[in-house]
Amino acid sequence: MNSTIFLLSFLIPLALGLIEFKLDKKKADIVMLISALSSLALTSYGLAVFLGNRGIYHLVYIHSQGLGEVFGFVVDTMSVLMAFIVSLTALLILLYAIDYMSPTNKLNPVESGKGTFYGWMLILEGAVLGFLFSSSLLSFLVFAEVIAIATWGVIRYYKTPNARQAANKAFGFINLSMLFGLLLVVVFGLVKYHDTSLYALGQLSSKATLWVFLGVMLTAITMSSQFPLYSWLPDSTEAPVPASAFIHSIGAVEAGLFMMVRIVQFMNGIPKTAYYVIALLVVITQVMSIFYYPLQKDAKRLLAYSTIAQVGIMYVALLGAILGSAGGLQASVYQLFNHSLVKSLAFLVAGTFGFSFGTFDMKKIKGLRWILPGAAVGWFLALLGLAGVPPMGLFLSKANVIMTGTMAVRGASWIEWIPVLLVLVDATIFFMVAVLWMKSMLFGEPSYEKGKISPLMYAVLIVLIVVMTVSPFLTLHLTESIRFIGG
Fold it and tell me: Which three-class secondary structure state does DSSP give residue 60?
């Protein structure tokens, strides 16, 4: 397997992202497009090559006697397919941003400074791509820190007091969790084993496995906005809409979940204590999200709590993997893929509200089907998609989670059924809330003059709708090849 393809896919956006800080307007747009298109071309080619030579490839680039594997790649179905989805979604979001980040935006007009925004976004894309291929906990730590810095940069972009506070909160929470979680695990690995490679995880004792799992878990659940350090994510919606779309669909949130999947994939015989810890946090997160849904009036914050719950469902699937079911790995990753696309669509449609009407307050928007019909269709599909209504992708992945979860806890106590049942409860409550908002927003006397968004923004929404419709049927078979690696 030629690793240069994947190396360049994340090095290019990291390098060009730094250049973007010196550019603005059309020059910034051009460099951004070069970067985003290059990453997509490389990950697309890499995916095509991988599908012709499927397997699990471990590529070590930097290794030392004292530190063990410092930097390397794991190239497999999970990393290659996720990298393709990240680069594709990033390109669409950045294309949308060309016209969204403009003086015609009624809520947040942008006269200058696009280069700074693109710079942080490209660095975030590059860090996520590097994170996906990482084959050691040390690499995870480095890329997670870059993700945290870039997330801070995009959240505070508007430089309002709320934006600055939200950015500092996200950065503080993620770094606090890394300090007491992933960093301690890396130090433990270096001091005791002189290695932090994922391949070394399968050789740990039962006690060491539990402590390493819990340490990584602390960082992972914070990045993926699970209880108790979840509140940074709803606050992060102070960021420009394209940044929110990235963070919630393919950014820090999904990276945290991905890291946890990798750990479970490589560990051998995880103690059941780990199962109960994750299950407790997921149950609290799910119940909390269910209560928050009806309280939201801001479209972006409603989507933020949806993200928290949807990632919680990914962790429900992962519970089955902790119990030894490879189907749990597959269901978790499949849910991740489907969520990333529909959540991108949801945020970009919500962005048209601020762009055209100057508000995200759903109570103020009436008659959307007449004043912005394209957005009305997108909002309808996005909310139904997030509710998991058939035949949407999240219906298939949630059904997969429920089936694999049911098989994993069959014969267990009633307590172990709670996370699985909450998947159904969450879908039901969100569907009810979504229907009420759609009835209120799509119909009724128009509350604004006819809105207008650019043809490019419309084109991005149409492409996302097509991709999110087709993708679940293309990725299902591929995710079924995901297996445990450690042991």
Answer: strand
Among 241, 270, 299, the domain-final residue is: 270
Helix (H) or strand (E) segment spanning residue 58: strand 57-64
Q: Does a structural domain hold residue 487?
A: no
Paired residues of 72 in beta bridges: 60
Amino acid at the residue 88? L
pLDDT in tens, 464-487: 999 999 999 989 989 988 999 865
Cβ neighbors of 76 (< 8 A, separation 6 or more) are 55, 56, 57, 482, 485
C-alpha span between 335 and 422 (Å, rounded): 15
- Expressed in angstroms, the distance from the first to the final Cα of the chain is 24
The domain containing residue 114 runs over which residues? Answer: 1-270
H-helix segments, 111-159: 114-133, 137-155
pLDDT, mean over the chain: 93
Residue 118 Cα to chain centre, angstroms: 19
The gap from C-alpha 282 to its chain's centroid, in whole angstroms, comes to 17
Same domain, 106 and 217: yes
Angle at 90 between CA 86 and CA 92, to 5 degrees: 125
Which of 205, 235, 270 lies at the terminal end of a domain, its last residue?
270
Which residue, 167, 130, 40, is CA-closest to 94?
40
In a domain, 337, yes or no: yes
Question: Do residues 437 and 323 share a domain?
Answer: yes
469 and 333 share a domain? yes
Residues 6 and 153 both lie in one domain: yes
Do 149 and 53 belong together in one domain?
yes
Same domain, 25 and 58: yes
Of 64-68, 128-132, 194-198, where does the model show the most confidence? Answer: 128-132
CB 197 within 8 A of CB 136: yes
Rounded distance, CA 421 to CA 239, Å?
Answer: 34
Question: Does residue 219 share a domain with residue 249?
Answer: yes
**Distance (Å) of CA 141 to CA 131, 161, 335:** 9, 29, 24
Q: pTM higher than 0.85 for the full model? A: yes
> Residues 6 or more apart from 343 whose CB is under 8 A from it?
245, 248, 249, 303, 306, 307, 310, 386
Is residue 253 located within the same domain as residue 354? no
Count of structural domains within the chain: 2
> Tell me: the pLDDT tens digits for 8-60?
999 999 999 999 999 999 999 999 999 999 999 999 999 999 998 888 999 89
Can you read off the two tokens belonging to residue 159?
Answer: 């430089």
- The Cα 267–Cα 20 span in angstroms is 40
Listing DSSP states for 179-204 in one string gives IIIIHHHHHHIIIIIS--BGGGGGGS
